[in-house]
Every structure is written in structure tokens, then in C-alpha cells.
Structures
1.
Amino acid sequence: MILRMGRSRLYLPKLESPPKTILAHLMAHFPNVAAEVWRERVERNQITLEDGTAITTIQPYQHGLTIYYEREVAEEPPALDPETILYQDANILVADKPHGMPVTPAGDYVERTLLHRLQKSTGLNALSPIHRLDRDTAGLVLFSTNPETRALFHRLFETRSIHREYLAVAHLARPHAHKHWLIESRIEAGEPWFTQRIVDGLPNAKTVIELIAVSAERGLFRLTPGTGKKHQLRVHMLSIGAPIVGDILYPIVREPEDGDPPLQLLASRLDFTDPVSGEDRSFSSLRRLETKGVFQRSDAVS
């Protein structure tokens, strides 16, 4: 069974080495979708230009065009670990997301996404995430339940008026002399395209990192981001020599192996002043990371 989601669009940018056809660009831009699937959809006239004209398999690539398509995914199995609703009122909903569950539909995930499951369980079609977590990251996600007040909660993130904390279990190749770091760097798209990297230039990403406990070759860290760049915490942890346990993108992209734990990164806390009621809000995740060892406070270890 194939599930069809709403119409999506893709702008064709100016590229240094453009492909010969739009079909070739689709195959390269969406590597998780089999090339034959894109070819079949083009042959079924399901990929169109803005005026509704269907593209062909030999349609030349032309930057500046926008193409339209309906996202299709095969019927999905149920989520292995369900989400939890921690709080709900007339304006917001706070959910505790498991590892491996995307917040919004993407790629092969539609019914297993947090947004779809919450809309189905609450009946709130107007539900909308105020911020995002990576699919691999577990923990707290704030949703708007009221379109009329949604902009007020978005502004909390725009003005950095919300306090976010994460916990991470990371590899320690050597004892760390430092217990605190302030990382300010410039993060841009890396290679492959779905990764990020630190480059020279004006900083656009900021994270405060604290080593709070240690055990053998692992450490438990508290991370407080000042910005929200893609993969920011994973890249900043790597920059101090402490890649997060379960990370299959950093330091190198690799295939998952049997026995790999989920990415040991948890959005553990949200604190903010409710812009509607004026009340102070504080939420903590009920989920736990896999420590696999007895951790001691970092200040108790020489």
C-alpha cells in the first residue's frame, strides 16, 4: 500500500556542475529514494512544473524552475517506542519524543512521525511544532495548539528567551583536563550534503558544554545551546574530542551495526515564561540515556 501526502515543491538552484536532466537532479537530491522510483513517477506524469505540465525523463535541468510532486511512501510499520504527552493546554502541547522518530514527515516517514501521531491521538489538526529535533535525538518538543497565539511562542526561540538543556553520553579517548567549554564557531553544510562541518568565518553557532560525570571511557555531558543550527550539538561535541555514543555521522559517516545504541543525545529540559499567561514553565524529559557503567561526578575524578 502507498500513502500519498500533500503536494511538495522543489526549487532548482543554480549549480556549478548541473545535471543534464531534472530527473538526474531528483535522483541525486533524494538519495534515500531509489532511482527507479523517480523514473517511474516521471513516466506516470506525477512530477510537474508550476503550470501543471508534466516533466519528461529527458527534461533538461534549468535553474530557477520549481517542480511539484506528491510525496509517496510505502505503508509504515508502527513506531517501536511511543511518544508521551507531558503537558497540554489551550495554547501549547509538550511531547517527550523517543529516539528514531522524526518530528515532521520526511523521507520514508509519515505515519511514524511525532506530528502525525499527535494529530491522530489528540484530534488537533492545527497542531504545529514550534521547534525541531533531529530524528535521532530524543526528548522534549514544544507544539502550538492555537494558531492565534503561535507567533508568540515562535518568538521565544527567535529572541532566545527559552532555556534548553540537553544530556549526552560521549566517548572519552583521554581524560579531559577541562570540565567546561564555550564553543562558538561557524557551521555550514559538509560533505556528504546531509552532514555539517566547522569552517572559518563569523560564528553562527554557540554551545556551552559541561562534563558532569565520567565512567571509564565515557562521559556524561550537559549541553546548553545558544543557537539552533542543524547537527550543532553533534559537531560541537566532536570538536572537543568527545563524539556522542551511537552517532553514525560524526566523526565519519558509516552504516549502523548490530548492537549500536540510539544516538545518546536527549533534549532534557525546557524553561520559559509563557507569553500568554505570564507563568514560568519548566519541563523535564522522562527518558533516560544508556550509560552502561557507574558514573562519578566529574569534580570527584582527578
2.
Amino acid sequence: MKKLKKATLPGAWIVNPKDKGRRKIKKGNVYLKNGDYFEIELYNPLKKSILADIRLNGESISEGGLVLIPGERNYLDCFIDDKKKFKFETYKVDDSGETKEAISDNGLLEVFFYKEDVIQFDNWRNYFRQSVIKEYYPIYIERQPYWWYDPYKPTIWYGTDINTDFTNGTITTTNVSYNTNSLNVSNLNQIETGRVERGEESKQQFNKVDINFEQNYIHSVIYKILPESKRPKELEKKKVSNETDLLYKLSELKDAGILTEKEFTEKKKEILSRI
């Protein structure tokens, strides 16, 4: 596999839907507020088309992927199949090992880039063989219908747990009841987590294309979207420091007569609102 230079790698960023400004990334993490909408900026610097397989919360957002032609920059604001906008929503859970495992994919954004598979003299035979197999020997996985059951497995009804005992070839079951008061849920600490959910309807339109892509991805981008409450304190301090510097510069512009008192007041109010 030919190794691509960093400057020629496809890219993906989380951006603000209003001004397309890229969200700051700290050690692979991006911090959003509850209810924030966002878009995914995608860029293809290569001379061939690429396919972007985008996954949120550990699952692909479409049965296919988004194709970017050479030099194209695109801003995706929704799940491709149902065209619902990306919306970050937070909630609280108990701080236990089991729960942390359950929420491990929350807010995870993964983008895998695949390069267009162009037919060349040294690979056309293999390409033709793959095409024939795909056309005449389709591979599929048949899902089990909802009424399917295993006659050798005892039925478990909702609301009860069953202890199964195989003795002398027979099956005996004993219902087990739980005392929820013994779980001490109130004693567990609460932590905030967030997932990318489906928001309002998007107006983006998509066209289907018939292009073949290589089986192995050439590059991947992975971010973790976290609630604002998880933002490291040093980032907050740096933000306040930057805004303070802007206020000093703004004051200097007013003293120099470049800004009027009204302009100074409006800009000052705008900067303070960011802190």
C-alpha cells in the first residue's frame, strides 16, 4: 500500500453550522453543549474520488457512504438515509463500570476514507472475477424473522428471570424475583454523557453514483464528542485569557479614536458573552 503524505490526506472536521467554523480539538476530543447542532466538513485533496464511511455512536450513518470527487469540499449536516440533522444531546448516568462500558461509543465520530478503484492493466483480471462473483453469486445474511425460535431453548417471558436445570434430560424452571431496593442506585455518583441524535429535517439532497472503491481504507479520522462539563479547566482558562486580551486591544482602538464609544460598547458586549 502506497503511503500518502500528510498534506495529501483526506480530512474531516466538526464545524459550526452557522459560520462553518471548525470546533476546537483537544487530544481528539470536541466539546459541545446539550442541543447543539453541528456539521461534518469533509475534504478530498486527492486526484481520485474517495468514499467517506461515516460512523456515529459506533454505527454507520448510511448503508452506503458519501463520495467526494477530486478537490471537493463538502459540509454534511445529516444522517444520509433519513436526512435528519446531527444533534448532540446529553444525559446523566450512574458512574459504574458496567454503565461506562454501555456508553463507551457515545459521541464517537469515525470517518474511514476509501480510494476509487480504477481498472488498470495489472488488475483487470481480478476486477472482472470480482464483478462476476458479485453478479452471479450474491452474498447475503438472512435475518431471523420475529417468530423464529429455538425448540431446544426454554422460553423466557418478560418480567421474570428463569433458572434452568437440565436433569435427566428434562427442563425445570424456577422463577426468580428481584428486590430493587437492594441495588442502592441512589448511592452511585452521576456522570454526564452525550450522544449524537436525530434532530430536525435537513434540506440536503444526495445523488446515487456507481463507482467501485478499494477494499482497504487509506486514512481514518476519529473524534470523541463530549459534553461541555467534561471540558478540561485549562481550556476554560485559556479562553478567558484570550477574551481578556481582545478587550485590552479593543480599549486601545477606542483610545486611538479608531472605534466610537458605541462600537466599543457593542464589541465589548459581544466578547463578554463568549466567556
3.
Amino acid sequence: MLEFESRFRSEDACRDYLAGLRWPSGFICDKCFHRQSWKNQRGLWICGKCRFEHSVTAGTIFHGSHMPLRIWFRAMWQMTNQKNGISALGLQRSLGIGSYRTAWACLHKLRAAMVRPGREQLSGEVEVDETYIGGHEKGKGGRHIGKKSLVIIAAEVREKGTGRIRIKRIDSASERNLIGFVQEVVRPGSTVVTDGLPVYRQLADLGYRHESRVAESRDQSSATLPRVHRVASLIKRWLLGTHQGSFSKRLMSGYLDEFTFRFNRRLSTSRGMVFYRLAQQAIVTKKTEDRILGVGKVPV
């Protein structure tokens, strides 16, 4: 923490760090592609040829934010260095942010940056299954969604352990959603292991090796697909522990993105590298629109 505070002790230090991520091979003008520039007193990079002013935060999740970059950087450090993450209320208290809405918006923008564009598909042997998140509803059973969220999970098999995962909230267990998810996150030629749901049988005709495992009883279902069931259990425990089980169904995808980011980097020995990856993705992630975060009343 002392090293972090020393490195990012000013707004200029934070801007210079982001500039290194945005232009890793040196400055290049967005208009004329000239490489020479200077920085003015407002922290803008001025092209030496066309005099176009460049803001290092333009088009990123930091664009238009009135919150200092030093607070943004501390928020990223909190998200990547706390084992179970942090809630908006916890972030507001720890960083002294005046508004709960500001802390809430900050976290959701960072969650949006946790999904890397063009990330590699899962490969090898991959378990796929669906689960419901949101608690029990009295009098409802089967595949009734109601207030719950239907989530589909894919987990790589790595000997006795679990490799990378992918998670997505879907509206229904339709063929379009289930097969579309597999095609999106699993590389063709891989072995896809599922339960006995008939819709998955067509995977064999789509370039995958399909293996169906049917549990003899409900109590044995976790033994047939142990990795996705373990991931589902961890998600529910994380949402209950970090967010006290209170979260918006509409924003479930953001929470799933954060969990995926954390899980896939759980074995990293360098927390500074995890911070670097998040900052790197924050630079290439376009500004999150208000319609995504919502307007008016702030969801939890």
C-alpha cells in the first residue's frame, strides 16, 4: 500500500500511468498520427503538428468523471486486492466518497472494464450447466424464473481442478441462449460436458464433442458436473457475503463479470499485475452510458 501511494501520489502521476497504457509505443495523434507532443498545464497532450488536444481519459470509463484519478486508482486497488471485493457502501466509507451514487457508479464502470474484448475461448474439456440465483420463491418450482436470475456457467477441466470460467445471465433456457453461449465461449473441437437436457445434443453437429451426464438423483447432480456446481456455489456465497444478498437483477451481468475476473486470476501471485490488467482494460473500454447504469433511483 505504501508503494502504491508513493507511485500515484498526484493526478499527474496517474495521468502519466494511463498515458503509458494508452500509447505503449509512445504518443501518436488521433488526427494526423504525428508522434511529437507536449503536455499543457491542464494535463492535456498537444500534438506538435496539428495542435489537437488529447485527453488521456477520453473514451474510457474515466471520461467525464468529476472524481479525481487518485480516487479511481484507489478504487481499482481495493477491487483487485480485497479477496471478496467491496460493496458500494464499503467503497464510499473507505475512500471518503461523499455520494453513495458516485461510489456505486464507479464500481459498475470498473465491472464493465473487467470483460476483455476478444478474450480467448475455453478449450479442452469444458463443463456447462445452468443455475438460478436470487433465492427461493414460495410456491414456485421447476424452471420458473420469477425474481431470480437464470445464469449459465462454463468451466474448464484442469485435471482435478478448475481452469478458466465464463458466466452469463440469460433470459430463458432456450436453444438460442444455451447453444449460442457455448458457441460464444467454447472453442470448436472441444469436449462439452452437459447434463441430460436434450437441446445440447446438437452440439455434436456444430463441431464439438458432446458428452452427456445424467445424475441418478438430484442429490448426485453436483457429482456429475462438479466444477460448474462448485462455481455456482461460490457465486451465491460471494453475493451473499459481499453484497448481503441484495443486488439488482438488471445489473446481475456486472456482478458476474467481476466474479469471473476474480476467479480467473485467483492464482496470481502479483496483485500489482492484476491492478495493471484492470487499468489496461479500463483504458480500452468505452465510456459506460447512463442507460446501462440507470438513472434516477440507484439500484443496490
